[in-house]
Amino acid sequence: MDELENLDDPLKTQIANLALPIKDDLLSGAAEIALRAISVFQTALNLAPADKKEDAPLLKSILTATAKALIDVQPAMAPLLHLGNSVLSAIDNATSVGEIKVKTDEALTKFEYTLCASAATIADLAYDLIDPGELIFAYSFSSTVVSCLLNARARGRFFRVVCTEARPSMEGRKLASRLASGGIEVIHTFDNAMGLVLGNCSAAFMGCDCIARPGVVNKVGSWMLAVACRELKVPLYALSGTEKFIPDDRMFDFEKHERPAAEVWDNSPRGVAILNHQFDLVPYDLLTGLVTEHGILKESDIEPYLVNSNSTMHRALILEASTR
Amino acid sequence: MDELENLDDPLKTQIANLALPIKDDLLSGAAEIALRAISVFQTALNLAPADKKEDAPLLKSILTATAKALIDVQPAMAPLLHLGNSVLSAIDNATSVGEIKVKTDEALTKFEYTLCASAATIADLAYDLIDPGELIFAYSFSSTVVSCLLNARARGRFFRVVCTEARPSMEGRKLASRLASGGIEVIHTFDNAMGLVLGNCSAAFMGCDCIARPGVVNKVGSWMLAVACRELKVPLYALSGTEKFIPDDRMFDFEKHERPAAEVWDNSPRGVAILNHQFDLVPYDLLTGLVTEHGILKESDIEPYLVNSNSTMHRALILEASTR
To answer: Coil, strand or helix: which one is B147?
Structure first.
């Protein structure tokens, strides 16, 4: 079954171009990227050529292709999978273009609402993890972590944040700027200096791109942070809505996400191979807890949130053995 | 007693300028910097103004000031301390300018010879730590590590090296280039990606700037490397001649070595404080061994090499309580 066979090449190119800015967004957290993806779906609703505006199967194909394209450009970002899944499941039984549009809009609105409500609950839980007057370590750029820290500051808690660059895309600078402009005092250094600052922190926060049985996937360097936190006895929390849970069979898709060598070292000399992987995996035993909208979870609590491809995923998004 | 009171300001400025390039050399290893410092002493021998060329006390003051200036610009680099100590101890009883010059030349030549002989022995020991066909991790830039790896390759051992950037001065790129041009295949990535590559390595090598009872001081990031190596069960060796041992009371001088914020983030936003420390401390229990010209040492073997300020250092180089 190829649900995309009625798409012509210009349309396929248009869809791919819609997803492209999401591929190149290395600075935003997963939740922030999900919000951007919502507007990609809104744009995709109007992609059909003028003479086919009322072709319901074509619009379904466009939305299916959009969902797949978004997942493809950021395979580690769980919310993109769930957003696509929500849209495709919502329009499955729709028969007219009008109905597809209404159902899609509803699914997008509901997804955005859930994301925001879940962020608010997580911020409340994180507030209690920030000791007054203490230093908090924050790694990479996570929109969830940023909103938790700004929320705590707005509620009058005083604390300082230490963060590092997060090479090679340096989204740690975006984190530092965002927090500083929100009135939080920030101390910033480079990633390999983590060991010099972490020991003075009362807790460390990280975001997360996806979660499954093996652990939490986040920006590369999270594993080093986690090992250093354990060594220095600093509690480490991953702040993340349960929309980050994905099927186990997609877990290692993040390993596909290799970026261009030039981002690390432009014109590196002959004989030097460059590795530019974006993510690594933090096993649960290195985490103090997963702060979600359902409370602070330990490994033993995650069973109910694990996602089963075959029972919860739309058929168009289930990975076939041959595509692995 | 101020042995430097007979130096006028222009002469003090000349001496400070001689040491300046050593201060700004963030890319060379400690042994390489010691070789550069030898030529600084050779230049200093000719600094006296024409009308005072035969003033022996003045030349002694010039050499004392040169030794202090070199130690001051790179307080973590042990060989500079020992080089200065060798020169000052050698000229202590010299009474004429001619004698001072001869004794200085002898001390410099002996120091250089010892440094090279010790490097050759360390290279032999390191050769046996490089398993054929394996991956070796190397951190930062250490002239001792580079010469060991190139020596092993030249002796026909085939292996690959993984290294990381070593932010902010990126001397890992110098390491990668030097090894690649010596025929070693190199894999290069950024520092926070250490966890993705280290697990595939059969051993990790680092250099060292100084050693004392608390542990080994090296480029910042070495502590993270050491913690990651232990977690992944990769043996970690510090390759270093025993000229890196320094008195315990100088051990934490490396913490003074803060570099400009702009090297980390030029024009960082208001409210963001930048930390740019160059070194960190690796305690012995995180090291598999210290590869020296006297064999591979464990913590229990270091006692004979510990340096006592009062019995082995020239009086001009002993730290007074008031200067701490």
So the answer is: helix
Nearest to B268 among A167, A168, A188 (CB): A188
Tell me the backbone φ, ψ of residue A142, rounded to 5 degrees. Answer: -125, 125
What is the number of other CB atoms lying within 10 angstroms of the CB of residue A316?
20
Work out the average pLDDT over A8-23: 92
Instruction: For residue A192, give the amino acid letter.
Output: N
Please state the pTM of the whole predicted model.
0.89
Q: How deeply is A109 buried, as exposed, middle or buried, from its count of CB atoms within 10 A (0-12, 13-18, 19+)?
A: exposed
- Three-state SS for A95-108 is CCHHHHHHHHHHHH
Q: Which residue of B has its CA nearest to A282?
A: B195
Q: Which residue, among A226, A196, A204, has the nearest Cα to A145 in the 3D structure? A: A204
Domains of chain B plus CATH, in order, are 9-119+311-323 (1.20.120.420), 121-308 (3.40.50.10470)
pLDDT digits (tens, 9 = 90+) for B71-123: 999 888 889 999 999 999 999 999 999 999 999 999 999 999 998 889 899 99
Tell the residue number behind the tokens 């030029």, with chain if given.
Answer: B266
Tens digits of residue pLDDT in B110-124: 999 998 889 899 999
Q: Let me know if B89 is exposed, middle or buried by CB neighbors in 10 A (0-12, 13-18, 19+).
A: middle
Number of neighbours of residue B31 by Cβ within 10 angstroms:
27
| C-alpha distance from residue B150 to each of A256, B73, B185 (Å) | 34, 29, 11
pLDDT confidence tier of residue B2, bands split at 50, 70 and 90: low
The sheet that has A210-212: what strands, in order across it? A210-212, A215-219, A279-282
Q: Is the pLDDT of residue A1 over 60?
A: no
Q: Report the C-alpha gap between A3 and B30 in whole angstroms.
A: 63
Q: Which of A141, A311, A277, A162 is nearest to B274 (CA)?
A: A162
Distance from CA of B226 to the nearest CA of A (A): 10
Decide if B188 and A274 are in contact by the 8 Å CB cutoff: yes
Other residues' Cβ atoms within 10 Å of the Cβ of residue B232: 16
**Three-state DSSP class for residue A85:** helix
Centre a 10 Å sphere on the Cβ of residue A112 and count the other Cβ atoms it contains.
14
Mean model confidence pLDDT for chain A:
92
State pLDDT tens for residues A101-151. 999 999 999 999 998 899 899 999 999 999 999 999 999 999 899 999 999
Residue A311 has pLDDT above 80, yes or no: yes
Contacts of B180 in chain A (CB under 8 A): 269-272
Nearest to B245 by CA among B280, B285, B217: B217
Q: What is the ipTM of this complex?
A: 0.88
Residues A204/A210, Cβ–Cβ less than 8 Å = no
Residues of A in contact with B192 (CB under 8 A): 164, 166-167, 191-192, 220-221, 224
Cis peptide, bond prior to residue A247, ω within 30 of zero: no
> Cβ–Cβ of B188/A273 closer than 8 Å?
yes
- Nearest-CA distance from B312 to chain A in Å? 32
